[in-house]
Design brief:
Elements: H1 4-30, H2 33-62, H3 68-86
Length: about 90
């Protein structure tokens, strides 16, 4: 039997991947740089959301197994990822 949290994380990643494929097909269909750029910009919003959600689900699943110190390090690491993504 699959763990519910793992199933949720995998489902979110499958959804995210499907959105990426649909966006790529849409870019090809539109065949215009400015419209493809708009589609790509929309994807920039999906990626961080999926990362944050799957990480949160994973942390909820292992919260009772991690010490507070290790949990803090994970949160610092995720924060660094978001700072690196958002600071351009």
């Amino acid at each position: 039997m699959l763990n519910k949290i793992v199933l949720s994380m995998a489902s979110l990643r499958l959804l995210s991947g499907s959105i990426e494929i649909i966006a790529a097909l849409l870019m090809l269909r539109l065949n215009q740089i400015d419209k493809a750029l708009m589609v790509n910009t929309g994807l920039a919003m999906v990626g961080p959301f999926v990362l944050l959600t799957t990480t949160t689900l994973g942390l909820v699943g292992v919260a009772e197994k991690l010490s507070y110190g290790k949990m803090l390090w994970v949160l610092v690491g995720v924060s660094c990822i978001f700072i690196g993504i958002l600071k351009k």
